[in-house]
Design a protein that fits this description.
The protein is mainly α. It is built from 20 helices and 7 strands. The chain is globular, with a radius of gyration of 27 Å. It starts with a helix and ends with a strand.
Amino acid sequence: MPDTSDVTNVSDQQRLRWSAVLLLLAIGVAFAVYGINEQGMWYDELYSATLGAVPLLDVVETVRRFDMHPPLYYLQLSVWETVSQSDLWLRLNSTAWWLATGVVLTLISRRLFSNNTAYLALAFFVLNASGVHFAQELRMYALLMLLTVLCFYATEQFWRHEERAPSGLLYVITVTVIYSHGAGFLILLSMWASAAWVAWQRLVPRQRLLRFAAVQFAAILTGLPEHLRAATMHLHFEEGLSYAIAPSPYELLRDTVWLITGRGELLGAVSIPITLSLTVPILWAGTRTEGPARRALLAFVITPIATCCAISHLSRPIWVFRAISFTLPLLCLTLAVGSLQWLEVIHARLAAVKSNETSEAWPGLQRVTTMLLPVALLVWCLFGVIAQRTFYPLVSHYREAAEVVARAGRVGDTIYVPQSYGYWAFCWYALGPGSIQPLHDAGQHELPNGVLVVKGRPEAEPRIVETKYVATESDDAGQHDLPRTFLLMYGKKPAAKMIAELQLAEGIEVRQFIDESPVGVWQIRSN
């Protein structure tokens, strides 16, 4: 009778492995969905929601006219919104892409490295504070993380296959990246950096490198319409993105550390040396030998960061933490490989010392010592996830502004919103999800309570009174029946500029009813 014990043991091991993966994914999803709907969507999220709410056939033209990013993300979001347009459901779109990234990262880590590497990579990923944040936010960064992992895997498969490299897979993924995000060119540079590295190290034959170049050239030609559109739109942004910077050495270091522990900074500036002391030895261990881990770190983490920094200093500022967030999964993979390599390195050194030891307690001490650094890093990452929820909320208060207008507004009131995207955001909550179709919008709508919302700037008025949201307590006696005019703007600087342009900077009476927020509402009244 055949012995089935080996088969049973293998089956049990597989069940145990998948149980570990599912447990880690469950922990990650719990972090991602916890508090996901505590506050309304902020400015960028409402921008995504509006572009995704248009009919599928109008998405490409809408994006072409109003957005610098390619249309692929908004196309899939338009399909997603056919189920529901609630805040929770829309944000779960990013959660789904983040979850897919974790699954794919686990699978390729097993295929390129080992089971233990896959478990550790997934553990670092689900405990990555920045990754958890992007899993909660209605933007395209979770999707971009997945595409980065696929690009890394496609290039590695290209180098590993000796006879027939997967050209079709590489082409499809490259084109997908081009049509997914404005920062997609940084991922392309990562793939080319990987090719340059293997060419310099002479790890693959010249014919395969030429085939790789041909595939990339074909993909770039396919994406040529998007390149031309993006270049045309950039002409309207001669000074670069208003929120981008040319990072100082400190900002470069700080934002890079954010990739590991998020923007919570549990211990303030001390977080930077703590994070570096925990990660640098592990990353060094992971890249000591030639292999995919070294290419992952050098090509897909360091190259885009260095490129983004160089462009910001040599050309125009494009440095935004979000623009380098796609490196997160492969940074987690390198940390996983480095953790296992670190254990082997320290184990070998301790074993050499042990040869002169006779203490029976040494094996236990050895195990504790070798596990200390990776465990400490995982615990530090966990603290980062917790701290980020406390220190880094992204709010715009459009939902709160719409609620106050609905409660305190009356028939005949008019509220002007000069910023087009702010007009979309406010109307999402004031009129209802998907109420604004950018291609066909008339620029003004009447709310259910009779308040007229107008896209544009108000005519010059003698005096503006800041109320920070419309409130009935701000009305003067005897003025309750007169129509009122309000100005709603996003950001203090644009609002101050608008007031200055209307020459109303002097004699402004300020009456603030709630805490500071990016959204301000001013009441305009004649003397």
